[in-house]
Write a structure and sequence with these properties.
The chain is an all-alpha fold. Helix content is 73%, strand content 0%. α1 runs antiparallel to α11, α3 packs antiparallel against α10 and α5 packs across α10. The chain is globular, with a radius of gyration of 22 Å. The N terminus and C terminus are likely disordered.
C-alpha cells in the first residue's frame, strides 16, 4: 500500500481568509477599483456556494454512513456468530470491497510516487487499532451489561472528540456548539434510557462501553487528520487490514468460533462487512475531509435513531414515545451543531 497518497475526492476546498484591515473583515483585494470589487464579490459568492454544497454533501454522507453502521446490531442479532467473531467478520469482508474501490481510485489518480510519510503510516495504523479496540470493547461490553447501557456510554464520544481536539491540536469550539452537542447527547440518552440499568453489577460493562467511545473518538480524530492528504478508500483499507487480524486474535482468545455454521450466517456476515463497514465507514470518512471532526462526532448520534428504527422494522422491537421524543431531540441538537460549526463563516457572509 505504499505509493503516492490516494485522494479520491480532491483536497478540501480552501476557505477564503479574512482581511483584518477591512472594517467588515471582508476578503477584498487591497485596491478600491469598483469593477474589481464587483468581480471579486461574484467569484467569492460562487466559491462560497460550492463550499456550502460540498459541506452539505459531506454532512449527508456522515449521516447516511451513521445509518449504515447502525445496521450492525441487526446483522449480529440474526446470527449465532459470537460478538467478537462478528466484529472480525465486519472488517474482514469489507476488505475486498474497499480494495476494489481503492484500485479504481488508484487507476484514476495515475502513476504512484514512491514513499509514504511516516506520520501517515502512524495515523493509518492508529485508525485500525482504534477501530478494532472500539469494536472489541463495545461487543464485550454488550455481554457484560445491558445493550442500552453500552450504547449510552458509547454515545458520549463527542465529549472525547472535543476534549482530545483541544488538548492535542488546540481545536476550539463555541459555547453554542457545546450546547447543541449536549442536546444531541441528551436525545441519544433518552432513546436508550428506558432499557438502561445502572446497577453496580454492570460497572465492568459500562466501563468497557466508555472505553469503546474513547477509542472511536481516537479513530475519528486520526482519520480526520489524514483526510487532508489521503483518500477515504485508502484510510478505510488500512483500517480494515490493520484491525481485522487484531479482532481475529481477540475472538480466538475468547474461545469463539469464527467460522459461521450455516450459509445464512455467512451471508449475514458478508452483508455486515459490506453495509456497516465498507459503505458506512466509507461515507463517514469521506465526509471528514470537509467537516470539523467535532461536528462529525455529533452527527454520528443519528446512529441510535437508525438502530431503534431498524430494531422496530426488522426485529419487531417496540418503539416508545420516550424514544421518539429522544429522536427529535437528537435531530434538533445535530441541526444546532451544524449551525454553530459554521457560525463564523455565516457571520462573514451576512456582513458582505
Amino acid at each position: 500500500m505504499s505509493g503516492r497518497p490516494i485522494v479520491d475526492d480532491g483536497p478540501m476546498p480552501a476557505m477564503p481568509t479574512l482581511n483584518p484591515q477591512s472594517p467588515r473583515h471582508e476578503p477584498y483585494p487591497k485596491h478600491d477599483d469598483l469593477l474589481s470589487r464587483a468581480v471579486f464579490r461574484a467569484v467569492h459568492g460562487m466559491t462560497g456556494t460550492v463550499v456550502d454544497r460540498r459541506r452539505a454533501s459531506a454532512a449527508a454522507a456522515v449521516v447516511l454512513g451513521a445509518v449504515a453502521t447502525a445496521s450492525n446490531p441487526v446483522f449480529v442479532r440474526l446470527t449465532d456468530v459470537g460478538l467478537l467473531a462478528s466484529a472480525f467478520h465486519r472488517m474482514f469482508w469489507a476488505i475486498p470491497v474497499i480494495w476494489i474501490w481503492a484500485a479504481l481510485v488508484r487507476r484514476r489518480a495515475g502513476p504512484a510516487v514512491a514513499g509514504t510519510p511516516r506520520i501517515d503510516l502512524v495515523l493509518l495504523g492508529l485508525c485500525g487499532l482504534f477501530f478494532a479496540a472500539d469494536l472489541a470493547s463495545l461487543h464485550t461490553a454488550i455481554s457484560l451489561t445491558h445493550a442500552a447501557n453500552a450504547i449510552l456510554f458509547l454515545n458520549a464520544q463527542p465529549i472525547y472528540v472535543v476534549l482530545a481536539g483541544w488538548l492535542l491540536f488546540g481545536t476550539l469550539v463555541t459555547r453554542r456548539f457545546m450546547v447543541s452537542a449536549t442536546v444531541a447527547m441528551t436525545g441519544a440518552a433518552l432513546i436508550a434510557w428506558q432499557s438502561a440499568d445502572f446497577g453496580a453489577g454492570h460497572l465492568a460493562g459500562d466501563g468497557l462501553a466508555m472505553v469503546a467511545g474513547i477509542c472511536y473518538a481516537g479513530y475519528i480524530l486520526s482519520a480526520a487528520r489524514l483526510r487532508g492528504a489521503r483518500g477515504s478508500a485508502d484510510i478505510n483499507l488500512w483500517t480494515c487490514v490493520v484491525g481485522a487480524p487484531v479482532l481475529l486474535v481477540a475472538a480466538l482468545a475468547a474461545g469463539q468460533d469464527v467460522v459461521p455454521d450455516t450459509a445464512g450466517d455467512l451471508g449475514l456476515m458478508i452483508a455486515l462487512g459490506v453495509v456497516s463497514q465498507a459503505l458506512g465507514q466509507g461515507l463517514i470518512v469521506w465526509g471528514l475531509a470537509y467537516l470539523p471532526s467535532s461536528f462529525s462526532s455529533v452527527a454520528l448520534l443519528v446512529a441510535p435513531i437508525a438502530a431503534a428504527v431498524f430494531a422496530r422494522l426488522l426485529l419487531d422491537e417496540s418503539l416508545t414515545a420516550l424514544q421518539v421524543g429522544g429522536m427529535a431531540v437528537v435531530l434538533l441538537g445535530v441541526y444546532g451543531a451544524w449551525r454553530a460549526s459554521f457560525a463564523v463563516v455565516e457571520a462573514v457572509k451576512e456582513g458582505e
